[in-house]
Amino acid sequence: MSSKISLEPQKSGILLIDKPADFSSHDIIAIARRVLKTKKIGHSGTLDPMATGLLILLIGREATRRQDAFLKLSKTYRARLKLGTETDSWDAYGQVVAQTPVPALDQDIVNRAAQSLEGAVHQPIPFFSAKRINGRHMYDLARKGAEMERRYNDVTVEWKDVRLTAADEIDFTVHCSCGTYVRSLGYLLAQKLGCAGHLTALRRLEIGPFNVQDAFDGNLLKECAGETLYAQVKPLDL
Q1: So what's the pLDDT on residue 92?
Q2: Domain residues of the chain, as ranges?
Q3: What pLDDT is stored for residue 1 in this prediction?
Q4: How many C-beta atoms lie closer than 10 Å to residue 152's C-beta?
Q5: N or C: which end of the chain has fewer CB within 10 A?
Q6: For position 175, what pLDDT does the model report?
């Protein structure tokens, strides 16, 4: 196969990647473009650099034309919430902006707080997000210290498992509609419990019918041969 990057790939379909931490979704796409020697790659929704888990790459014209359908799929995440400290990004990669005492909690209190955020949720959009304002990413504006009004979106949330694992720590699994910021759910849950909080771990387990257990290990992506990676491309069946 030619070493040049072509517009059209050998094979069109979807490529499930288990994204490692400390890579942006665009880093993964750039590596896949280089390995597969094609520019025609889209995605089904990005993950924050801190987050790990399922990322669906859309390979080829036929797949990228169906990007909107993939973006609208619901998602399932597993996360860890640290109580008592808020960061500007609402995750562990941000700067600490507030610290509060953590009230005495038990599992019933935590369950009731999560249930109050079940169903339709009007959630704040993190300032450090890829949402655009006048064509510019909010995270770019936030890094430059620009003043921004808080923006919100409406999502649907189903808490699958919520566990108080320490006096100041909660592990939870959530199934949610597209457009949900799990960092925002952590922020809201901490508020319901009367304190600050931020996510210290986030992993995407599912996108629609697709599961991270079937994904290619993103840690192996850089050293992977093109033919090996093409063998992982699955036909479109959505």
Answers
A1: 94
A2: 13-72+210-230, 75-207
A3: 45
A4: 11
A5: N
A6: 98
Fold held by 13-72+210-230: Pseudouridine synthase (3.30.2350)
Which pLDDT score, from 0 to 100, does residue 126 have? Answer: 83
Shortest CA distance to 89 belongs to which of 13, 181, 20?
181
- pTM equals 0.90
**140 assigned to active site:** no
Which CATH architecture group holds 75-207?
A: 2-Layer Sandwich (3.30)
Contact 80, 199 (CB under 8 A): yes
User: Which one from 18, 27, 48, 217 is the annotated catalytic residue?
Assistant: 48
HEC letters along the chain: CCCCCECCCCCCEEEEEEECCCCCHHHHHHHHHHHHCECCEEECCCCCCCCEEEEEEEECHHHHCCHHHHHCCCEEEEEEEEECEEECCCECCCCEEEECCCCCCCHHHHHHHHHCCCEEEEEECCCCCCCEECCEEHHHHHHCCCCCCCCEEEEEEEEEEEEEEECCEEEEEEEECCCCCHHHHHHHHHHHCCCCEEEEEEEEEEECCEEHHHCEEHHHCCCCCHHHHHCCCECCCC
Position 149 scores a pLDDT of 74
Give the integer Cα–Cα distance in Å for 55 and 44: 7
Q: At 207, list the tokens.
A: 């996108």
Q: What pLDDT, on a 0 to 100 scale, did the predictor assign at position 52?
A: 97
Q: Which residue has the tokens 């995407």?
A: 204
Q: Is the Cβ–Cβ distance between 198 and 186 less than 8 Å?
A: yes
